[in-house]
Design goal:
Elements lengths: L4 E6 L3 E7 L2 H6 L7 E3 L2 H14 L1 E8 L1 H12 L3 E4 L6 H12 L3 E2 L11 E7 L5 E6 L13 H5 L1 E7 L6 H16 L3 E5 L3 H6 L1 H8 L5 E5 H8 L4 H8 L6 E4 L5 E4 L4 E4 L12 H14 L4 H16 L8 H12 L4
Parallel strand pairs: 1-5, 1-9, 2-7, 3-8, 5-6, 9-10, 10-11, 11-12
Antiparallel strand pairs: 2-4, 7-8, 12-13, 13-14
Length: about 325
Protein backbone atom coordinates (compact mmCIF):
# COMPACT_ATOMS: atom_id res chain seq x y z
CA UNK A 1 0.00 0.00 0.00
CA UNK A 2 1.04 3.59 -0.53
CA UNK A 3 2.57 5.01 2.65
CA UNK A 4 1.26 8.32 3.96
CA UNK A 5 4.06 8.96 6.46
CA UNK A 6 7.76 8.22 6.46
CA UNK A 7 7.91 8.23 10.27
CA UNK A 8 5.37 7.61 13.02
CA UNK A 9 6.90 8.43 16.41
CA UNK A 10 5.84 8.33 20.04
CA UNK A 11 7.57 10.26 22.81
CA UNK A 12 7.42 12.57 25.80
CA UNK A 13 6.06 15.91 24.61
CA UNK A 14 7.95 18.71 26.35
CA UNK A 15 8.51 22.39 25.85
CA UNK A 16 12.27 22.90 26.10
CA UNK A 17 13.81 26.05 27.52
CA UNK A 18 17.54 26.26 26.85
CA UNK A 19 19.68 28.20 29.30
CA UNK A 20 23.40 28.92 29.36
CA UNK A 21 24.97 28.24 32.79
CA UNK A 22 28.37 27.51 34.31
CA UNK A 23 29.60 24.45 36.20
CA UNK A 24 29.43 26.32 39.50
CA UNK A 25 25.66 26.70 39.10
CA UNK A 26 25.21 22.97 38.54
CA UNK A 27 27.31 22.22 41.60
CA UNK A 28 25.50 24.76 43.77
CA UNK A 29 22.13 23.23 42.85
CA UNK A 30 23.37 19.61 43.19
CA UNK A 31 22.60 18.86 39.53
CA UNK A 32 24.21 15.83 37.87
CA UNK A 33 26.05 17.20 34.87
CA UNK A 34 25.50 15.68 31.44
CA UNK A 35 22.48 13.66 32.50
CA UNK A 36 18.72 13.85 32.11
CA UNK A 37 17.15 13.96 35.56
CA UNK A 38 13.43 13.70 36.21
CA UNK A 39 12.19 16.27 38.73
CA UNK A 40 8.85 17.17 40.28
CA UNK A 41 7.10 20.48 39.72
CA UNK A 42 8.37 21.99 42.98
CA UNK A 43 11.99 21.22 42.12
CA UNK A 44 11.59 22.70 38.65
CA UNK A 45 10.11 25.89 40.12
CA UNK A 46 13.13 26.05 42.43
CA UNK A 47 15.51 25.71 39.49
CA UNK A 48 13.66 28.31 37.43
CA UNK A 49 13.89 30.78 40.30
CA UNK A 50 17.62 30.16 40.68
CA UNK A 51 18.20 30.46 36.93
CA UNK A 52 16.55 33.87 36.84
CA UNK A 53 19.74 35.23 38.37
CA UNK A 54 22.34 32.86 36.92
CA UNK A 55 21.37 31.80 33.41
CA UNK A 56 21.08 33.21 29.93
CA UNK A 57 17.95 31.98 28.15
CA UNK A 58 18.44 31.23 24.46
CA UNK A 59 15.17 29.87 23.14
CA UNK A 60 11.99 27.92 23.80
CA UNK A 61 10.69 25.21 21.47
CA UNK A 62 8.52 22.14 21.31
CA UNK A 63 10.79 19.32 22.28
CA UNK A 64 11.42 15.93 23.70
CA UNK A 65 13.81 13.58 21.92
CA UNK A 66 11.48 11.99 19.38
CA UNK A 67 9.82 15.34 18.69
CA UNK A 68 13.19 16.86 17.76
CA UNK A 69 13.89 13.86 15.53
CA UNK A 70 10.66 14.06 13.52
CA UNK A 71 10.89 17.85 13.21
CA UNK A 72 14.38 17.50 11.74
CA UNK A 73 13.24 14.75 9.40
CA UNK A 74 10.31 16.87 8.22
CA UNK A 75 12.51 19.87 7.45
CA UNK A 76 14.69 17.60 5.30
CA UNK A 77 11.60 16.56 3.36
CA UNK A 78 10.11 13.58 5.21
CA UNK A 79 6.49 13.28 6.28
CA UNK A 80 5.92 12.51 9.95
CA UNK A 81 3.28 11.95 12.61
CA UNK A 82 4.01 12.45 16.31
CA UNK A 83 1.90 10.71 18.98
CA UNK A 84 2.12 12.30 22.43
CA UNK A 85 0.18 13.92 25.26
CA UNK A 86 0.01 17.60 26.25
CA UNK A 87 -2.53 19.44 28.38
CA UNK A 88 -5.03 22.17 27.61
CA UNK A 89 -2.75 24.91 28.94
CA UNK A 90 -0.51 27.61 27.47
CA UNK A 91 2.47 25.26 27.32
CA UNK A 92 0.43 22.65 25.45
CA UNK A 93 -0.89 25.25 22.99
CA UNK A 94 2.67 26.45 22.34
CA UNK A 95 3.80 22.87 21.73
CA UNK A 96 1.06 22.12 19.21
CA UNK A 97 1.59 25.40 17.33
CA UNK A 98 5.36 24.85 17.12
CA UNK A 99 4.92 21.25 15.94
CA UNK A 100 2.38 22.28 13.31
CA UNK A 101 4.72 25.00 12.02
CA UNK A 102 7.30 22.29 11.32
CA UNK A 103 4.79 20.33 9.24
CA UNK A 104 4.39 17.45 11.70
CA UNK A 105 0.93 15.88 12.09
CA UNK A 106 -0.13 14.88 15.60
CA UNK A 107 -2.91 13.44 17.72
CA UNK A 108 -2.99 16.54 19.98
CA UNK A 109 -4.06 19.08 17.36
CA UNK A 110 -7.68 18.96 18.58
CA UNK A 111 -9.03 18.89 22.13
CA UNK A 112 -6.63 18.23 24.98
CA UNK A 113 -7.21 17.13 28.60
CA UNK A 114 -6.86 19.34 31.66
CA UNK A 115 -3.50 19.22 33.42
CA UNK A 116 0.04 20.54 33.21
CA UNK A 117 2.13 20.02 30.09
CA UNK A 118 5.69 18.75 30.40
CA UNK A 119 8.68 21.07 30.47
CA UNK A 120 12.41 20.56 30.25
CA UNK A 121 15.18 22.87 31.41
CA UNK A 122 18.20 22.33 29.17
CA UNK A 123 21.28 23.78 30.86
CA UNK A 124 24.35 24.21 28.65
CA UNK A 125 27.81 24.71 30.14
CA UNK A 126 30.82 26.38 28.43
CA UNK A 127 32.19 22.96 27.39
CA UNK A 128 29.03 22.49 25.25
CA UNK A 129 27.70 19.72 27.50
CA UNK A 130 23.94 19.69 27.98
CA UNK A 131 22.29 18.82 31.29
CA UNK A 132 18.53 18.35 31.44
CA UNK A 133 16.07 18.53 34.32
CA UNK A 134 12.64 17.41 33.20
CA UNK A 135 9.18 17.71 34.70
CA UNK A 136 7.14 15.31 32.60
CA UNK A 137 3.74 16.62 33.66
CA UNK A 138 0.89 15.05 31.70
CA UNK A 139 3.31 13.54 29.17
CA UNK A 140 4.16 10.94 31.81
CA UNK A 141 0.68 9.48 31.26
CA UNK A 142 1.03 8.98 27.50
CA UNK A 143 -0.36 5.52 26.83
CA UNK A 144 -1.52 3.16 24.07
CA UNK A 145 -4.69 5.29 23.93
CA UNK A 146 -2.68 7.98 22.10
CA UNK A 147 -1.74 5.59 19.28
CA UNK A 148 -3.61 5.38 15.98
CA UNK A 149 -3.29 1.94 14.40
CA UNK A 150 -4.51 3.09 10.99
CA UNK A 151 -1.88 5.84 10.81
CA UNK A 152 0.82 3.45 12.03
CA UNK A 153 -0.13 1.05 9.21
CA UNK A 154 0.35 3.89 6.71
CA UNK A 155 3.92 4.63 7.86
CA UNK A 156 7.34 3.40 6.74
CA UNK A 157 9.04 3.58 10.15
CA UNK A 158 7.77 3.48 13.72
CA UNK A 159 10.20 5.41 15.92
CA UNK A 160 10.29 4.85 19.70
CA UNK A 161 11.92 7.17 22.22
CA UNK A 162 13.80 5.39 25.02
CA UNK A 163 12.84 8.07 27.55
CA UNK A 164 9.36 6.49 27.62
CA UNK A 165 10.80 3.71 29.77
CA UNK A 166 10.49 5.74 32.99
CA UNK A 167 6.66 5.59 33.04
CA UNK A 168 4.56 2.41 33.12
CA UNK A 169 1.90 3.78 30.75
CA UNK A 170 4.46 5.33 28.39
CA UNK A 171 6.45 2.10 28.30
CA UNK A 172 3.22 0.28 27.42
CA UNK A 173 2.69 2.75 24.57
CA UNK A 174 6.19 2.07 23.25
CA UNK A 175 5.67 -1.69 23.40
CA UNK A 176 2.27 -1.44 21.74
CA UNK A 177 3.68 0.71 18.92
CA UNK A 178 6.39 -1.87 18.26
CA UNK A 179 3.78 -4.66 18.23
CA UNK A 180 1.42 -2.83 15.88
CA UNK A 181 4.24 -1.83 13.55
CA UNK A 182 5.51 -5.40 13.36
CA UNK A 183 1.96 -6.65 12.75
CA UNK A 184 1.54 -4.30 9.79
CA UNK A 185 5.00 -4.76 8.29
CA UNK A 186 6.22 -1.31 9.38
CA UNK A 187 9.92 -1.10 10.21
CA UNK A 188 10.72 -0.38 13.87
CA UNK A 189 13.41 1.96 15.18
CA UNK A 190 14.26 2.71 18.81
CA UNK A 191 16.72 5.04 20.49
CA UNK A 192 18.19 4.30 23.93
CA UNK A 193 17.99 8.10 24.46
CA UNK A 194 20.23 8.72 27.48
CA UNK A 195 22.87 6.96 29.63
CA UNK A 196 20.69 7.51 32.72
CA UNK A 197 17.79 5.66 31.11
CA UNK A 198 20.07 2.73 30.32
CA UNK A 199 21.60 2.74 33.80
CA UNK A 200 18.41 2.95 35.83
CA UNK A 201 15.76 1.43 33.53
CA UNK A 202 17.60 -1.25 31.58
CA UNK A 203 15.01 -3.97 32.23
CA UNK A 204 12.26 -1.71 30.90
CA UNK A 205 14.26 -0.99 27.75
CA UNK A 206 14.74 -4.71 27.22
CA UNK A 207 10.97 -5.07 27.49
CA UNK A 208 10.45 -2.26 24.97
CA UNK A 209 12.87 -3.88 22.51
CA UNK A 210 11.10 -7.22 22.94
CA UNK A 211 11.98 -9.72 20.22
CA UNK A 212 14.01 -7.04 18.50
CA UNK A 213 13.79 -3.89 16.42
CA UNK A 214 14.84 -3.23 12.85
CA UNK A 215 17.07 -0.27 13.75
CA UNK A 216 18.64 0.74 17.05
CA UNK A 217 20.13 4.19 17.74
CA UNK A 218 22.48 4.82 20.67
CA UNK A 219 25.70 6.59 21.59
CA UNK A 220 28.85 4.82 22.71
CA UNK A 221 28.21 5.19 26.44
CA UNK A 222 24.68 3.86 26.09
CA UNK A 223 25.90 0.90 24.04
CA UNK A 224 28.55 -0.05 26.60
CA UNK A 225 26.23 0.42 29.57
CA UNK A 226 23.34 -1.50 28.02
CA UNK A 227 25.54 -4.49 27.17
CA UNK A 228 27.78 -4.31 30.25
CA UNK A 229 30.89 -4.47 28.08
CA UNK A 230 34.14 -2.52 27.92
CA UNK A 231 34.63 -2.41 24.16
CA UNK A 232 32.48 -1.17 21.32
CA UNK A 233 33.15 -4.35 19.32
CA UNK A 234 31.77 -6.50 22.13
CA UNK A 235 28.81 -4.16 22.56
CA UNK A 236 27.98 -4.36 18.86
CA UNK A 237 28.09 -8.14 18.92
CA UNK A 238 25.49 -8.17 21.70
CA UNK A 239 23.32 -5.48 20.16
CA UNK A 240 23.20 -7.44 16.91
CA UNK A 241 21.13 -10.03 18.78
CA UNK A 242 18.28 -7.53 19.32
CA UNK A 243 18.57 -5.20 16.31
CA UNK A 244 18.56 -5.78 12.57
CA UNK A 245 20.74 -2.69 12.10
CA UNK A 246 22.60 -0.38 14.48
CA UNK A 247 23.73 3.24 14.61
CA UNK A 248 26.25 4.19 17.31
CA UNK A 249 27.15 7.87 17.46
CA UNK A 250 30.70 8.61 18.65
CA UNK A 251 30.67 12.37 19.15
CA UNK A 252 33.69 14.04 17.61
CA UNK A 253 34.77 10.65 16.19
CA UNK A 254 31.76 10.36 13.90
CA UNK A 255 29.60 7.24 14.02
CA UNK A 256 29.69 3.50 13.53
CA UNK A 257 26.95 1.81 11.49
CA UNK A 258 25.99 -1.81 11.01
CA UNK A 259 23.51 -2.24 8.16
CA UNK A 260 22.71 -5.87 8.99
CA UNK A 261 25.56 -7.21 6.90
CA UNK A 262 28.48 -4.83 7.04
CA UNK A 263 29.99 -2.18 9.29
CA UNK A 264 30.54 1.37 8.06
CA UNK A 265 32.54 4.15 9.69
CA UNK A 266 31.03 7.62 9.34
CA UNK A 267 33.58 10.41 9.28
CA UNK A 268 33.01 13.33 11.63
CA UNK A 269 32.50 16.86 10.37
CA UNK A 270 34.94 19.12 12.22
CA UNK A 271 33.20 21.99 14.03
CA UNK A 272 33.63 23.91 17.24
CA UNK A 273 31.00 22.49 19.59
CA UNK A 274 28.93 25.10 21.39
CA UNK A 275 25.97 23.02 22.52
CA UNK A 276 25.55 19.24 22.18
CA UNK A 277 21.82 19.33 22.97
CA UNK A 278 19.84 17.64 20.21
CA UNK A 279 22.80 16.20 18.31
CA UNK A 280 21.63 12.60 18.67
CA UNK A 281 18.03 13.55 17.87
CA UNK A 282 19.11 15.31 14.67
CA UNK A 283 21.35 12.41 13.70
CA UNK A 284 18.38 10.05 13.95
CA UNK A 285 16.08 12.43 12.07
CA UNK A 286 18.47 12.94 9.16
CA UNK A 287 19.30 9.23 9.06
CA UNK A 288 15.64 8.16 8.97
CA UNK A 289 14.88 10.77 6.30
CA UNK A 290 17.64 9.40 4.08
CA UNK A 291 16.65 5.76 4.60
CA UNK A 292 12.99 6.54 3.90
CA UNK A 293 14.05 8.04 0.56
CA UNK A 294 15.98 4.92 -0.41
CA UNK A 295 19.55 5.95 0.40
CA UNK A 296 22.19 3.53 1.68
CA UNK A 297 23.46 3.45 5.25
CA UNK A 298 26.73 5.21 4.36
CA UNK A 299 24.85 8.01 2.57
CA UNK A 300 22.36 8.31 5.43
CA UNK A 301 25.27 8.45 7.86
CA UNK A 302 27.00 11.19 5.88
CA UNK A 303 23.86 13.34 5.93
CA UNK A 304 23.29 12.69 9.64
CA UNK A 305 26.90 13.52 10.49
CA UNK A 306 26.76 16.82 8.60
CA UNK A 307 23.42 17.78 10.14
CA UNK A 308 24.36 16.95 13.72
CA UNK A 309 27.65 18.81 13.34
CA UNK A 310 25.71 21.93 12.41
CA UNK A 311 23.43 21.45 15.43
CA UNK A 312 26.31 21.36 17.94
CA UNK A 313 27.92 24.45 16.39
CA UNK A 314 25.12 26.69 17.67
CA UNK A 315 22.71 26.85 20.60
CA UNK A 316 19.52 24.84 20.44
CA UNK A 317 18.54 21.26 19.50
CA UNK A 318 17.54 22.17 15.95
CA UNK A 319 18.68 23.89 12.80
CA UNK A 320 16.94 26.82 11.18
CA UNK A 321 14.37 25.39 8.75
CA UNK A 322 16.19 26.75 5.70
CA UNK A 323 19.49 25.14 6.75
CA UNK A 324 18.22 21.61 6.11
CA UNK A 325 17.86 22.01 2.36
CA UNK A 326 21.42 23.22 1.83
CA UNK A 327 22.86 20.34 3.90
CA UNK A 328 20.66 17.81 2.10
CA UNK A 329 21.50 19.14 -1.35
CA UNK A 330 25.21 19.32 -0.55
CA UNK A 331 25.52 15.80 0.87
CA UNK A 332 22.93 13.90 -1.16
CA UNK A 333 22.89 16.06 -4.27
CA UNK A 334 19.13 16.18 -4.37
CA UNK A 335 16.13 18.30 -3.55
CA UNK A 336 13.19 17.09 -1.47
Amino acid sequence: MEKRYDIYAVGNALVDTEIEVDDAFLESMSIDKGMMTLVDQQRQHELVAALDNHGKIHRRASGGSACNTVVGACYFGASAYYACKVADDDTGAFFVHDLSAAGVDTNVAGSRPAGISGKCLVMVTPDAERTMNTFLGISETVSPDELDEDVIRQSRYAYIEGYLVSSDSARSAAIRLRELATQHGVKTALTLSDPAMVKFFREGLVEMIGDGVDLLFCNEEEALTFTGTDSLDDALEQLMEVAGAIVVTLGARGALLWDGNKRHQVAPVAVKAVDTNGAGDMFAGAFLYALSKGHSFPRAGALASAASAQVVSDFGPRLAPEAHASIRDSVLGEKA
